[in-house]
Amino acid sequence: MIVLSPISAQNLDEAFNISAQAFGISGHLQSVPQKVFTELFYASPDNWTMLLVNHNPAALVAVMDYPDFIYVGYMVVLPSHQRQGLGKLLMESIIEKYASKKNILLDASVKGFSLYEKIGFKIVDRAFIFSLDRLGILQNCPDSEITIEEMRIHHLIEIRVLDQKIFGTERFPIIEHFLKLFSDRAFVSINRKQQITGYFIAQWNALGPFVAIDIASAQQLLQKASVLSFSGTPTVIIPEKNVTGSNLLATVGRQVRHCTHMAYNGSTTYQRRENIFGQITLASG
To answer: 90-109: buried (b, 16+ CB within 10 Å) or exposed (e) per residue?
Structure first.
């Protein structure tokens, strides 16, 4: 018997265990992967679904429901239940629920790509994952008209507008959630006209969200990130369309893998992906 059941705070550990087994990662309570998983859930707790087979957890999918599109993430199936059509069943339930209302976006792993392609998703871009293993030796940027400030309450209205223009929809509730977690690890770039030109939030072991309207702002923000401490080597997820951004990251790190950015039926969504220097996660954009 197959049942779809909402994920809640009460069964969140069970949900993470599915993800941990599917991705082959360690998952104790205070591990960074579990903390990221947990905080992403609490940032947007609706529309997380677990699939049960004979009352036992077998798969899960998370949907980030933004005003102008949805982002599908953590679509995972336990290794013991793979190749039984469960992933296809989960995705078809999402398409049935959302396709007539909103665009559906996701970042497909190499392993999951064929499933998404078969059910109607088309390639629109790729996302590169960089390991910033040389971030700590980043050389000082040339003199710039850009200054960096710690993010403060009075910056938030302008950040909200800037982020929506670049990301293509309103996602401020999620940004606000991560800002509360990392309030001392969030910075903005400001030009001589006192306009905000970019920002980033540094997570435990990742840099993102990270957006900037130009490479000079991104360089200065990355310079600031280079003096922060991380839990291990930090990573950043950047769209392939941001060529100058990838070139910048290549000076302090290396590309370790990629995902394929896909949209259901190839539907287009207005995103300035060339200005996205770091996604929050692969599960949320």
So the answer is: bbeebbeebbeebbbbbbbb
Contact call for residues 74 and 41 (beta carbons, < 8 A):
no
Q: Which of 76, 80, 82 has its CA nearest to residue 23?
A: 76
Residue type, 118: K
- Mean pLDDT, rounded, of the chain: 93
Q: How many CA atoms lie within 13 A of 100 on its CB side?
A: 3
CA distance 278 to 226: 15
Q: In the numeric block, which tokens belong to residue 199?
A: 């920002």
- For each of the domains in the chain, give its residue range(s) and CATH number, in order of start: 2-106 (3.40.630.30), 129-278 (3.40.630.90)
Asked if the model's pLDDT at residue 27 lies above 70, the reply is no
Alpha helices in 135-242 (DSSP H): 156-167, 172-181, 215-225
**pTM of the full structure:** 0.94
Within 10 Å of residue 6's Cβ, how many Cβ atoms? 11
Is it true that the peptide bond before 173 is cis, omega within 30 degrees of 0? no
Q: pLDDT category, 8, cuts 50, 70, 90?
A: very high
Phi, psi of 202 (to 5 degrees): -95, 120
Q: For the residues of 156-184, what is the DSSP string, one character each? A: HHHHHHHHHHHHSS--HHHHHHHHHHTGG
Q: Is the pLDDT of residue 177 over 60?
A: yes
Neighbours of 137 (CB within 10 A): 9
Alpha-carbon span 137 to 81, nearest angstrom? 45
CB atoms near residue 68 (< 10 Å): 15
